[in-house]
C-alpha cells in the first residue's frame, strides 16, 4: 500500500505543479567551443540602471572577445535606436578588429530587432541567442560586468555621477589585468606583448621582432592561449557538473514548465503568493541544441517564446485524460423592482432599488445602486418617478 501511495502522489497533477524541488538543478554544463583566433566570436551585454551623467549616459554596452577576453566598454543611452548602436558597433568594433563570425547575447530588445538581424546578415555574422528565461549564455560576460561595476563603485566615491569619465581608465585596467584562464593579460593575448604602463616603464623594454619571427611568435601564442582555455574550461565544467544532474527528454514527452524561471519576468497569467510553481503539461516537439527544447504552445501564450532550457522543465510522470468541464453557472437577470430608497451624502444623493432576480423569490431580493443597474442592465430602470410608481403598484396587485 505504501508503494501505491508513493506512486499515486508522484503522478498527481496537483503535486507536480505545487510541490517544491529539493534536488540538484537539471542539465549538465554545456560550454561554448574554444575558437581558433582573436575577435571571431564576441559577447554583448548591457549594464543598465546607472546614474545619469551630465552627457546623458545611463548604461554601458559591454563587448568582449571570447578568445583573448579583451573588452570594450561603451557608454550609451537607453533612448538610443538600433541605428545608433549599429554606428557605434562599426566605429568601435569593426574598424578595430574586423567583422566577427558570431555574436552571442541574450534576447534583449536590441539583439532581436529586425534592423540588427538584417545588419549582421549583411555583414555575414551569425547571431546566437540564449533560450527564453535562461539568459546564461556565458559566465564570462557576467563576471566582467561584476568587475566593471565594482570599479565604477570605487570611482563613484570620488567622482560621484561622472562615471563615464572613468570608463576608459576602467577598460585599460581590465585589459591589463592578469587572467587565470589565459595565464596572461588580455592585452598581451591580443597584441603578443605586454602593455607599457607607468608601473613597469623601466622593467619591460622593447620587444624587437622582424620578418617571419613576428608571425611565428603570434601563432605559438595563440596555440598556448587555446590550450590554457581548454584546460580552464574543462576544470570549470567538472566543478559545475558536481552540483547538477543530467536530464534528457525525447520528442513527444510531456513536461511541466516553471511558472517563474526568473524574478520579475512574464508570469504566464499566474501570479501571487499561492500561485502554482509549474504549469502544463506541454508536449515537446523538438530538441534545440543539447539542453533546450521547443514546446507545443497554447493560443493564449502565443506571444511567449516557446524554447526553454532543460532546467526550467520537469517531467510529467502521468498525463491526465481530458476532463470534461461542466458549466454550472447561469446569468441572473433583474425582473422586478420591489422598493426604492435614497441615501444622501455631503455631495450627492444615491438612489437604491430593491430588485427581484430571475430564479429567485421576493424574499431573496437585493438592494442595488441605480448607477450599477443602468450600466449593467440598460433599459431596466424606469425613466421617470411616475413610471416607477406604476411599476410598484402593478407588482403589488399581482
UniProtKB/TrEMBL annotation:
Family annotation (SUPFAM superfamilies): Chromo domain-like, Ribonuclease H-like
Domain annotation Integrase catalytic: ranges: 27-194
Organism expressing this protein natively: Paspalum notatum var. saurae
Source organism phylogeny: Eukaryota, Viridiplantae, Streptophyta, Embryophyta, Tracheophyta
InterPro entries per record: Chromo-like_dom_sf (IPR016197), Chromo_domain (IPR023780), Integrase_cat-core (IPR001584), RNaseH-like_sf (IPR012337), RNaseH_sf (IPR036397), SH3_Tf2-1 (IPR056924)
Record's protein name: Integrase catalytic domain-containing protein
Record GO biological process: DNA integration
A molecular-function term among this protein's GO annotations: nucleic acid binding
Source domain of life: Eukaryota
Amino acid at each position: 500500500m505504501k508503494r501505491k501511495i508513493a506512486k499515486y502522489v508522484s503522478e498527481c497533477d496537483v503535486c507536480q505543479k505545487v510541490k517544491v524541488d529539493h534536488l540538484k538543478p537539471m542539465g549538465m554544463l554545456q560550454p561554448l567551443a574554444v575558437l581558433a583566433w582573436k575577435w571571431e566570436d564576441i559577447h554583448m551585454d548591457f549594464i543598465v540602471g546607472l546614474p545619469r551623467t551630465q552627457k546623458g549616459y545611463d548604461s554601458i554596452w559591454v563587448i568582449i572577445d571570447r578568445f583573448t577576453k579583451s573588452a570594450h566598454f561603451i557608454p550609451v543611452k537607453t533612448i538610443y535606436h538600433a541605428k545608433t548602436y549599429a554606428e557605434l558597433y562599426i566605429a568601435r568594433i569593426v574598424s578595430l578588429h574586423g567583422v566577427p563570425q558570431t555574436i552571442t547575447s541574450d534576447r534583449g530588445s536590441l539583439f532581436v530587432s529586425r534592423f540588427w538581424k538584417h545588419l549582421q546578415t549583411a555583414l555575414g555574422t551569425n547571431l546566437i541567442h540564449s533560450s527564453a528565461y535562461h539568459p546564461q549564455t556565458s559566465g564570462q560576460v557576467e563576471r566582467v560586468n561584476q568587475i566593471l561595476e565594482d570599479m565604477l563603485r570605487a570611482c563613484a566615491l570620488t567622482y560621484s555621477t561622472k562615471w563615464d569619465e572613468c570608463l576608459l581608465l576602467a577598460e585599460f585596467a581590465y585589459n591589463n589585468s592578469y587572467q587565470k584562464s589565459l595565464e596572461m593579460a588580455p592585452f598581451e593575448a591580443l597584441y603578443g606583448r605586454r602593455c607599457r604602463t607607468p608601473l613597469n616603464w623601466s622593467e619591460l623594454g622593447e620587444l624587437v621582432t622582424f620578418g617571419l619571427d613576428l608571425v611565428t611568435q603570434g601563432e605559438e601564442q595563440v596555440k598556448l592561449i587555446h590550450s590554457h582555455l581548454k584546460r580552464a574550461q574543462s576544470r570549470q565544467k567538472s566543478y559545475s557538473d558536481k552540483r547538477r544532474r543530467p536530464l534528457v527528454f525525447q520528442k513527444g514527452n510531456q513536461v511541466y514548465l516553471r511558472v517563474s524561471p526568473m524574478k520579475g519576468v512574464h508570469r504566464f497569467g499566474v501570479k501571487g503568493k499561492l500561485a502554482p510553481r509549474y504549469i502544463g503539461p506541454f508536449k515537446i516537439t523538438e530538441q534545440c541544441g543539447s539542453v533546450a527544447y521547443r514546446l507545443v504552445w497554447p493560443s493564449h501564450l502565443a506571444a511567449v517564446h516557446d524554447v526553454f532550457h532543460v532546467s526550467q522543465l520537469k517531467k510529467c510522470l502521468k498525463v491526465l485524460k481530458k476532463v470534461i468541464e461542466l458549466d454550472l453557472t447561469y446569468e441572473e437577470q433583474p425582473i422586478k423592482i420591489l422598493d426604492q430608497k435614497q441615501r444622501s451624502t455631503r455631495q450627492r444623493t444615491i438612489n437604491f432599488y430593491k430588485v427581484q432576480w430571475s430564479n429567485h423569490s421576493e424574499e431573496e431580493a437585493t438592494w442595488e445602486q441605480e448607477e450599477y443597474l443602468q450600466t449593467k442592465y440598460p433599459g431596466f430602470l424606469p425613466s421617470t418617478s411616475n413610471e416607477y410608481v406604476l411599476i410598484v403598484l402593478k407588482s403589488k396587485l399581482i
